[in-house]
Amino acid sequence: MKENIIKTKNFQFAVKIVNLCRTIQEEQKEFILTRQLIKSGTSIGANVREADNAESKSDFIHKMGIAQKEADESIYWLELFHATRFMN
Asked: 5-83 architecture in CATH?
């Protein structure tokens, strides 16, 4: 069976997000913003997996669109963490 690179990359991204947030929580005691990033950062892969099991082409497009929105939200949180010096 051929590897699905999109699913693999999204899972790896989610792992990195969880580890980043865990570090920020432990070192800087920041929990509200990290929770937002964990939610959006892990939701991308979940929506990609849902899209992989879509019932129709339009369902696939809809679920991938949600994944795109979650990715954009994750970029926002990462930019905010960088701008507020929670990470460099």
From this structure: Up-down Bundle (1.20)
